[in-house]
Design a protein that fits this description.
By secondary structure, this protein is mainly α. It is built from 24 helices and no strands.
């Protein structure tokens, strides 16, 4: 009977997330730290409509604290909306209400009335005041956590400006697209977010030119989103363009160059080019040292340690981590989350070098910090740290302890759109842990929750989604939900074929699971067809003498004997065999051992 393969789940890592920086005013510049400010100023001397509301981060306690007195809600006669002075007046009242910390709902009412007045007065002509007011309405919806309701206002705001009417209209449309991208990002809809950002970048480039420094800032911002979406080739192209523009316009060894190189190092590391990543980090560190940025130098040292660890240069990795730890303790305190993050990396290093006692000691040091976090520590920092420690406990075969840490990480996060991508990743890892300890019903429920979230966010065509479907199918098999498992494996197969191709080991693992399920359902011919394909691919990639190929042959032979058939195949020449098997060390092995004893009757 065909075995079952558990496709590996991607390691838990902290993705780059695109969060709008906090801004208490509806006006002003975009403040993105440590990111360089992203803006598209109009070359004309006339003032441009402010769009900083696109960067307001929603806060659950927004409006708390002492409130200043504000005017009571004004009753406006609908017929008075035709007054051209009413729109600016209502928009000012909305801004004053927000600035005073009063009810966001009251500010929203003023802003919506102002938009209606601007629309009536403008008629069919494009109105920058209307576009700006719609941006404000969308920003207030975001501050209330109602991101879905903000999207239609932003889409409408984008349709208002006319690019032929000058740079001010270009700025308004650019700002609308970027705010729309931020909103989709908060909803976890990365594909839509990237599409909006790309539209904004296109408008900015057409208005300012290819080599304007403000274009570089937007390119780097978009590159970060591509990294978050694991689209590293696109991110590398944008980051290279950013480096070129800053090299042309900025002073040598500028902070902008350092930020670009740190991002490029992340991209190179993700693509496996560790030497290039190390080079970019060393150059960025030199810039930060020259500018007296000690904490940034320490953060870069942590990244350098990560590269050394990937290169198995363990002594150099320990030195980099310890150097960073010393700086964090002296500048931020012994119990700062930054120190905990270094403890986790040291724990991972000592696990990989076989020093399990030291590894567990560093895990415990980090857990003590997360148990009593310092004021100002974010839930994301704590959740990500607990998730990383959980992965170490899983690696040392303590799944129960790993599961407890994942549950703590879940509790530390609020169920708001900004946290949904993190929560989804943690839930998926919890499903894996529950499956490992034999709690299959709970594992299935966890995977089902993840699948529902990914479908709702529009991320149903990603490789991660395909892997989760596969894991959910395995849990269904343990619960003898055979038909449901077959549907999940079939959907996972389609996604992984699209994302990875038919020859990827993860795709072949899903094929194997599907063959086993078809066998259990009595669909022997379908199972044979899939196994013949798997065996053909493995022979081409691994050679006929590989143990994995022998296992596939045995499984296929059992089904063929049952069906009264023999294998229909062409023999491989000795030359092809030697060519296919000449470098077995370079082949990537499957992450999880194939199941051998799922007790279906064949």
């Amino acid at each position: 009977m065909p075995g079952l393969v558990s496709v590996k789940t991607p390691p838990a890592s902290t993705p780059l997330r695109v969060f709008p920086p906090e801004n208490s005013q509806c006006e002003g510049s975009r403040n993105e730290s440590p990111r360089v400010q992203r803006r598209m100023a109009s070359p004309s001397p006339s003032p441009s409509p402010s769009t900083s509301t696109s960067r307001v981060r929603p806060s659950p306690d927004r409006g708390s604290g002492k409130k200043k007195s504000t005017p009571e809600k004004t009753v406006i006669d609908e017929s008075s909306l035709d007054n051209p002075d009413l729109g600016p007046f209502l928009l000012k009242m909305a801004r004053d209400t927000i600035a005073s910390g009063d009810s966001p709902s009251k500010a929203l009412d003023f802003a919506i009335r102002a938009a209606r007045s601007f629309e009536r007065c403008a008629g069919s002509e494009p109105s920058l005041d209307l576009a700006m007011c719609l941006h404000v309405v969308a920003a207030i919806h975001c501050s209330l956590g109602r991101f879905e309701e903000a999207v239609p206002f932003l889409e409408r705001a984008i349709r208002v400006p006319d690019l032929e009417k000058g740079p001010d209209h270009s700025l308004a449309m650019f700002s609308g697209y970027m705010q729309l991208g931020d909103t989709h990002s908060m909803l976890g809809q990365l594909d839509k977010s990237i599409s909006a950002y790309e539209s904004g970048l296109k408008i900015q480039t057409e208005t300012l030119g290819q080599s304007d420094p403000r274009v570089a800032e937007t390119c780097r911002y978009l590159a970060e989103v591509h990294v978050q979406a694991l689209q590293f080739d696109e991110a590398e192209n944008l980051c290279t363009k950013t480096l070129e523009i800053h090299g042309e316009h900025s002073e040598p060894a500028s902070l902008e160059e350092a930020a670009d190189r740190r991002l490029m190092a992340i991209i190179c590391e993700a693509k496996g080019d560790y030497e290039a990543a190390l080079e970019h980090l060393v150059l960025a560190s030199m810039v930060m040292i020259a500018n007296g940025q000690d904490n940034e130098v320490a953060a870069i040292d942590v990244s350098i340690g990560d590269i050394y660890l990937s290169l198995c240069r363990f002594d150099e990795a320990v030195f980099s981590y310890q150097k960073a730890l010393t700086v964090f303790k002296s500048t931020k305190g012994d119990n700062h989350p930054s120190a905990a993050s270094v403890f986790i990396r040291l724990a991972d290093l000592y696990y990989k070098t076989g020093k399990l006692r030291e590894s567990k000691s560093y895990c415990e040091n980090a857990l003590r910090i997360y148990a009593k976090p310092l004021p100002g520590s974010t839930p994301e920092e704590i959740a990500n740290g607990l998730t990383e420690i959980s992965a170490i406990y899983e690696a040392v075969n303590e799944p129960e302890e790993a599961l407890k840490l994942l549950q703590k990480a879940m509790k530390s996060l609020e169920d708001i759109p900004a946290h949904r991508s993190t929560i989804t990743g943690i839930e998926a890892q919890m499903g894996v842990m529950l499956y490992m300890v034999g709690r299959y019903r709970e594992a299935r429920a966890s995977f089902e929750s993840v699948v529902a979230k990914l479908r709702a966010s529009g991320e149903r065509k990603t490789a991660f989604f395909g892997i989760v479907l596969n894991q959910m199918g395995l849990a269904c098999l343990q619960l003898y939900k055979i038909d449901e498992a077959a549907e999940l494996f079939e959907e996972a197969r389609g996604i992984l074929e699209q994302e990875y191709g038919p020859y990827h080991l993860d795709t072949l693992g899903v094929y194997s699971n599907l063959a086993a399920t078809y066998d259990a359902m009595g669909r022997v011919e379908d199972a044979i067809e899939i196994l013949e394909y798997i065996l053909k691919v493995r022979e081409e990639k691994l050679g006929t003498a590989n143990p994995e190929v022998d296992d596939e042959k045995r499984r296929l032979a059992e089904l063929l004997k049952q069906a009264g058939r023999v294998r229909n195949r062409k023999g491989k020449s000795l030359e092809n065999l030697l060519g296919s098997n000449s470098n077995p060390q370079g082949m990537k092995k499957e992450g999880t051992k194939r199941w051998s004893g799922f007790g279906f009757k064949t």
